[in-house]
Amino acid sequence: MDNKINILIVEDEMIIAANISLILNSLGYDVMGLVPRGEEALVLLKENTPDIVLMDINLKGTIDGVETVRQMQQFCDVPVIYLTANNDEKNFNRAKETRPFAFIAKPFKKLDLQRAIELVISQKTAAKLDDTTSETATIPYVLDDCIFVRHNNNMVKVAIKEILYIEAERNYCRIFTQAKEYVLVITLKDIEQKLPSKHFMRIHRSFIVNLSQINELGTTHVVISKKAIPISKPHKEKLLQRLNTI
Question: Cα separation of 182 and 190, whole Å?
Answer without folding.
Answer: 16
